[in-house]
Design brief:
The chain is α+β, with helices and mostly antiparallel strands. The chain is built from 13 helices and ten strands. It binds NADPH dihydro-nicotinamide-adenine-dinucleotide phosphate.
Length: 495
């Protein structure tokens, strides 16, 4: 039985107001007479409603519907040759983590099971600070230039007048951005409707870099492969589950952990040296590309297990703030322009959503000392630096910088500063063609059916433009799809 007394001897059965004073009556409003008006002097009624009115915080612009759990990352293979990061320092080393899965386009109450990319964001609470790897369940993305990101998201959201989601906007955007076709084929394929969060892989997606104790940098991609095995819903199964249980993925994850059936993933990395970057036939920092496994083999690193459900959904999951700019010594960014924009955008969105002191909230607090010269701001909930001088450097005791942690320089290609056309010199079609080959014939057929269903109501001009892109990927596939689309139109017309 839980105790009614806390260690200080306080009575834990006592219901209080926010100031700690006891609530004597929570059923009846203070009124002037049994049938008379409510009195402004009912401070408890006012406090109750005022707090209720402010319960919702701004939801994330993307990845609003999320679920997550705490767990442990354990190193199984030595990668100290690549990284000096403390979490990789020894085989067997364990680091606590928080993993948040999400839908991308839908809002906070959206169904889990619709066709979408899924977020896969991990916070590693390392001894040297929090490392956030803010990835997806796909190794690639729809755009490679961050200038296009707000446009892309607008096209996936809701029509400005009617307020519903629109395949026309989606296909209009995709057909005007040929670099999206790799991710579009992936999304429309079997993996666009995972059976649960437990049955999908996670990918860091961008190229990052690892830095070892000798100050040497290699480029890296992160892959988390599910140990539950890949399992997906068909389009029909996903739609049926949307009606039956819109929180299916959230419930599945929570219940598995509750029943001690802890889900886990194996972390692999791919690495590339500067010489390999120079010899690479494509831009390895282009987020629409994978690094082929045959050329850049997967190297095992460790195991991530989720074993602890959130104590409170709002505190642990909704208030969790992941930012690719949360890096630790030994792990750094790369020249990928999408990553560079995300280094700014994620921390910025959390400042808007949760406030400038969001790093003080429970899921975001580093589990190592945080000694910083930031001061004040809304909801400053720690001692705000106490009496210590709030500027650096100063002549009094206080934290000092550590020059030995300065990163080795990142080489820049010589060139000029201008807005380079990111579609010149980029092959957007070979890797999507390879993805079609990776899919088995029944998977390709489901892909055609999924696209046909999704495109049914899209205006002909957009369909034709998208078919042109598919033709550049694989002419035979595009012809099969064109036939399927024309049959669907014929059926709809009653031919
Ligand atoms: P490989 O044959 O070595 O790898 C193919 C990979 O494709 C598999 O390892 C698996 O990734 C993934 N895959 C299998 N079935 C599907 C599917 N139905 N939908 C999406 N992905 C699937 O080839 P390459 O490395 O040369 O890559 C070929 C294509 O595979 C790429 O163009 C890309 O579209 C896709 N792919 C490649 C990945 C990479 O990092 N190289 C990662 C994921 C997909 P996994 O093992 O991660 O489940």
């Amino acid at each position: 039985m839980p105790s009614d007394k806390d260690p200080t001897g306080a009575d834990l059965t006592q219901f209080t107001q926010a100031n700690g004073a006891v609530v004597a009556n929570d059923e009846n409003t203070l009124r002037g007479g049994a049938r008379g008006p409510v009195l402004l002097a009912d401070m408890w009624l006012l406090e109750k409603h005022a707090h209720f009115n402010r319960e919702r915080i701004p939801e994330r612009v993307v990845h609003a519907k999320g679920s997550g759990a705490y767990g442990t990352f354990t190193v199984t293979h030595d990668i100290t040759a690549f990284s000096k990061a403390s979490l990789f320092s020894a085989v067997g080393k364990e680091t606590p983590v928080l993993l948040r899965f999400s839908q991308v386009a839908g809002e906070m109450g959206y169904a889990d099971t619709g066709r979408d990319v899924r977020g896969f964001a991990i916070k590693f609470y390392t001894e040297e600070g929090n490392w956030d790897l803010v990835g997806n369940n796909t190794p690639i993305f729809f755009v490679r230039d961050p200038m296009k990101f707000p446009d892309f998201i607008h096209s996936q959201k809701r029509l400005p007048q009617e307020g519903w989601r629109s395949p026309t906007m989606q296909w209009d955007f995709w057909s005007l951005h040929p670099e999206s076709v790799h991710q579009v084929l992936w999304l429309m394929g079997d993996r666009g409707t995972p059976k649960s969060y437990r049955h999908m892989n996670g990918y860091g997606s961008h190229a990052y870099s690892l830095i070892n104790a000798r100050g040497q940098r290699v480029w890296v991609k992160f892959h988390f492969k599910t140990n539950q095995g890949i399992a997906n819903f068909s389009d029909d199964e996903a739609n049926a589950m949307t009606g039956k249980d819109p929180d299916h993925h959230r419930r599945d994850l929570f219940m598995a952990i509750e029943q001690r059936d802890y889900p886990s993933w194996t972390l692999f990395i791919q690495t590339m040296t500067d010489d390999q970057v120079a010899a690479c036939p494509f831009d390895p920092f282009d987020l629409t590309k994978v690094w082929p496994h045959g050329d850049f083999p997967l190297q095992q690193v460790g195991t991530l297990e989720l074993n602890t459900n959130p104590g409170n959904f709002f505190v642990d999951i909704e208030q969790a703030a992941f930012a690719p700019s949360s890096l630790v010594p030994g792990i750094s960014y790369s020249p990928d322009p999408m990553l560079q924009a995300r280094l700014f955008a994620y921390a910025d969105t959390h400042r808007y959503r949760l406030g400038v002191n969001n790093h003080l909230l429970r899921p975001n607090q580093p589990r190592c000392p945080m000694q910083i010269y930031h001061r004040d701001g809304l909801m400053r909930a720690d001692d705000n630096g106490g009496a210590a001088m709030p500027y650096h450097p100063n002549s009094f005791p206080g934290p000092q910088v550590m020059p030995e942690e300065y990163e080795p320089p990142m080489p820049l290609a010589a060139g000029e500063m201008r807005r380079f056309d990111h579609r010149i010199g980029y092959d957007d079609f070979s890797q999507p063609a390879r993805l079609l080959q990776v899919m088995k014939e029944d998977g390709r057929e489901r892909l055609i059916q999924n696209i046909t269903g999704h495109m049914a109501e899209v205006p002909e001009v957009i369909k034709q433009r998208q078919l042109g892109i598919f033709r550049s990927v694989d002419a035979a596939f595009a012809e099969r799809l064109a036939l399927s689309l024309s049959k669907a139109v014929g059926l709809a017309a009653g031919d």
